[in-house]
Hints:
Layout (H helix, E strand, L loop, with lengths): L2 E3 L2 E4 L4 E4 L6 E2 L11 H14 L14 E5 L2 E9 L5 E11 L5 E3 H8 L8 E9 L2 E14 L4 E14 L6 E17 L2 H4 L2 H4 E15 L7 E3 L8 E5 L2 H4 L2 E10 L2 E10 L4
Amino acid sequence: MKKIKSLLMAITILSLIFSFYTPSASAASKDNLNLPEHADLIIKEVLESLEADRSKNFSTASASEPEIVVLEQGYAIQIENQTSNNETAITTIIPYKIDTNKEFVNSFDYLEAQQPDLIRPMAESTVPNKVVDVTLTIKTYYAQYFSWANVTNFYRHGGIEAWWSSSNTAVSVPGMTVKYETRGDLYRYPDCIDQPLSSTKVQNSYFKRSIISQSNPVKGAVYIDGNNTMPLDRVVTLTDYFNHGGVIDFTITQSLNGITKTSMNSYNVYSK
C-alpha cells in the first residue's frame, strides 16, 4: 500500500493552518510533550475545519485519531486516512496564530504563552451574519458569572475574532470593521459573588472596547483583537443592556461586478 501526500489549507477560529507531509516528523503522546492545558481545543478546531472543508472530501469518520508530532517549526497534528483509491494519505497540520505583531506563531506556543492569563470560565458567541453575497462570522469571548447573593449576572470582557466567507468567487471585501463593547459598573471578583454590591464596587460606568478594522481582509483569514480584555479580578454588571449588553457593531463593504455596497448591523451577546 503506497503513501501519498495530502495537501491542505484550512482556517480555524484560533489559527491559520497550513499543512504538508513531513517524513521527518516524530510522533509523541500529548502527556509527554508538556503541552499547554487547552491543547485539545486546537485539535478539536483543526478537525472541525477539516470536516467543514468539503472540497477536500475529508471524512473524520475514516481517519485515525489525531496524533501530535514534533517538527522543526513546532508542534503539529498528524492524521492518517484512507482515500477512495485505497491509498493511505498522511496529513500533517501546523496550526498558526496571528499575534499582535501580525506575525505567525505556532498555536501551541501561543496558547502556552497566554497562560495563566486565559479567561475562565469562558463563554462564547459565534454569529454568522449573512450580508448579500458575504457571510461575516464574529466570535466573541467573555466570562459570565451569576451571584445568588445579589441575584445578578456579572460579565468580563474578553477577545473577539472575525472572518468573512462567500460562495461567490467574484466578490471581494475592501474593508470590514467589528467593534465589541462592554459598559457597566465595575466590581471586584470573586468578592462580588457572595458579598454585597456596595462593598465590592470599584467604579461606575466602566467601559471596554475591542475593535477589528481591516482593509482588504483575506477571505477566510481570522482577524483578532485579543489585547483589549478585562483583568481577571474584575467584572461588570450591566447598567444599560440595550446599549452596552456586550454590543457587537459591524460594518462590511463588499464589491461585485463594479458595484460596491456597505452594510452595517449590531446585536448583543450578553444575557440580561
